[in-house]
Amino acid sequence: MLTLLAFAIAQTPILLPETVVVESRNEQALAESSPSISKIQVSTVTAEGIGTLGGILQSSPGIYTAPTSGEGSQTSLFIRGTNSSQSALLLDGRKLPQGFLNTYEIERYRTFGLSSVEILRGASSVLYGANAIGGVIDLRLANPLCEKSSGEYALTGGSYGRGSAAIHIVRNNGTETSPATQGTAFSFTTSHEDGWRPNSTLDASTALLKSEWQISPSLTVNLIGSADNSEARLPGAETNPKYNDFQNNKGWIISPGLTYYGDNLRATAFWSHALSELESYNEFSFGNVHQNYRLRHDEITAFIDQRLNQEVNWGLGTSYECSDYQIKVLNLDTASSSPWDGTHESLGIWTYADWKVTAYDRVKFAIRRDEFTDFKGKTTEEVTYARKLKSELTLHAKLASAYRTPAAGELLYGTVGGLPLRPETNTAIEIGLRYHDAKSPIPDWTLVAFQNQLTDLIDVDPSTWEAYNIAKARTRGIEYGIEGHPVNSLRCFGSITYLETEALSTYTTGSGMKVEAGQSLLARPQLNLNVGFEMTWEKNWAWGVSANLLHDRVDYDYSSSVRVDLPDATFIRSWIRYQLSPSYELALRLENLTGESAPPKALGYSAQPRSAYFTFTGRF
What's the whole-model pTM score? Predict the structure, then answer.
């Protein structure tokens, strides 16, 4: 039955590659990885005209991304029903600095020039430490030693003043007779959009860099870097429009590292230094607020993976992180200010053993301990079991714990009673199947059932804005995804996620909303369905269409203080590409073909109207 369903529903525009890195921090065969792992080839979705991180992630199983007001606007990220603040965002394995509430503004990162986006859904703190409750997203850069010296550029224009320009260049010393030993890949993207609502202009730019030097056959040195800047006007809800609100973000990261490859040993070490700055202005009922936020983040990580024999792999790693926060919130009406600064340090160590018990059975045990200067230490564990049912079908099961540390913004006004905050925690369980057969036209597919048990969730007292551990919640569901080529000229893809969320305790949020035990969490759709296909003909033409259905969502109406059901929504997009020559391509992308008006996320934020975008791509 799953095989029949594979042709009707399909996984995200993902052409699953041979290896992935995010699950173990080392390369491993995709066919042997957990079904909770996805790898999206950016070249595939870029060919469809998708250039935002939220757009790339949207159709992956278990993930729901929700823009507030159109393409490129502020976007919430929910992985298996967890909050935006409960997942980690990486660049080639390095943590990108998070926002002052531990959230990432994912639309500030342009995707042109990335090689792939790897997704690890589920509790992941054993390898990645804090803020990996929902999962990990790793933006992978192109390896300049593995590509030919080349260049590519793309120019896009379209509805609502959208315009962008991007360039990607790879240079190395490889020749036809010898492999490259040094090389650099560089990308730059800049874009502007007027937006379809008043006060919704967005300007954003991103630069990406990766250089590699092969010092010897067993030792490689690399340098990772990125810089980004965005200036966004914030239109507010349609029932309460804002004409002066804005949020400006900028940041950068620089990270040297090295990797050693031995016969039975691999070792990796890197240091990263990052800066993130935010400036915003908001008009609230209690006054106009100007906010400045600055974060410096350093990370030193080292780990080894050793093959003890044909059956057992063993690994050990350590990571030191230091975050220096500076926050200033000024109420312009009352001239009151709330400056806050602090430095948080953590030291973690983890180890694991991967044991191939039989030719069909594999077991992995992992444990991690983190100590903090400002919070109580945390121990996380993970146990996984895999069994190869057939050569192309593998069963996986996993039990793991994860946590999120309190954010700087949650400490700004102190804590209730002066009590220390405890990290949010997750106890997660999942079981799933992965089908992969490189010799068959049957599409690859994954099927996973999961549950997250969340405790010590942090919120703030609505009267004092002081933070405290307040709530418990649970998310659980089933996710299924598939992608493949039933015939050479047809690619099918899609995903379906069924999600149940439930508050397990009664509490009142900092915004004054009361949540009763047993109620579902806001915004997350119970059913998130993505289906699509792309067809090629006459070698030069390609046409595709996809649809996204959101069913059974709940939001909160602050004007009447009641929960409301959001209408179901179906968003249909289509694209067509024409290969002018081996070096030039022209593409047209159409969004929201049916003119769906239901909000993609929240009450008062309706969908972007029907729109069109043209892209010209050249290669040199």
Answer: 0.92
Cβ proximity of 304 and 318 under 8 Å: no
Distance CA 327, CA 408 (A): 8
Q: What is the largest distance, in Å, between two alpha-carbon atoms of the chain?
A: 72
Q: What share of the chain is helix, strand, coil (3-state, %, to 5)?
A: 5, 60, 35
Q: Which residues pair with 229 in a beta bridge?
A: 205, 250
If 0-12 CB within 10 Å is exposed, 13-18 middle and 19+ buried, where does residue 96 land? buried
pLDDT value at 418 more than 90: no
Nearest to residue 610, comparing CAs of 594, 598, 589?
594
Encode burial over 129-148: b for 16+ CB neighbours within 10 A, e otherwise.
bbbbbbbbbbbbbbbbbebe
- Residues forming beta bridges with residue 600, ordered by sequence position: none
Query: Which residues are within 8 A (CB) of 178 and not within 5 positions of it... i.e. 6 or more apart?
Result: none
What domains are there in the chain, each with its CATH number? 2-222+241-619 (2.40.170.20)
Give dist(CA 164, CA 373) in Å, integer.
44
Amino acid letter, 385: Y
Closest C-alpha among 326, 313, 427 to residue 364: 313
Strand partners, 459: 468
Compute and round to an integer the Cα radius of gyration of the chain: 24
Q: What is the 3-state secondary structure (H, E, C) of 487-554?
A: ECCEEEEEEEEEEEEEECCCEECCCCCEECCCCCCCCCCCEEEEEEEEEEECCCEEEEEEEEEEECEE
DSSP-assigned states of every residue in 383-403: EEEEEEEETTEEEEEEEEEEE
CA-CA distance, 175 to 172, in Å (whole number)? 9
Instruction: Name residue 347's beta-bridge partners.
Output: 320, 371
How many whole angstroms separate alpha carbon 135 and alpha carbon 86? 8
Q: Which amino acid would we find at residue 429?
A: I
Indicate the burial class of 270 (C-beta count within 10 angstroms; 0-12, 13-18, 19 or more): buried
Cβ count near 537 (within 10 Å)? 10
If pLDDT is split at 50, 70 and 90, which confidence band does 72 have? low
Report how far apart, in Å, the C-alpha atoms of 480 and of each of 241, 407, 437 are. 38, 33, 17
Nearest-angstrom CA–CA distance, 526 and 496: 10
- DSSP three-state, residue 461: coil
DSSP 107: G
Residue 277's SS3 state is: strand
Which two three-digit tokens encode residue 407? 């954010």
Q: What is the average pLDDT across 440-455?
A: 95
**Token output for 151:** 């260049």
pLDDT surpasses 70 at 69? no
Confidence band (pLDDT; 50, 70, 90) for 10? Answer: very low
| d(C-alpha 352, C-alpha 312), whole Å | 10
Tell me the pLDDT tens digit for each residue of 222-280: 999 999 999 999 888 888 888 899 999 999 999 999 999 999 999 999 999 999 999 99
Burial grade of 246 (CB within 10 A; 0-12, 13-18, 19 or more): middle
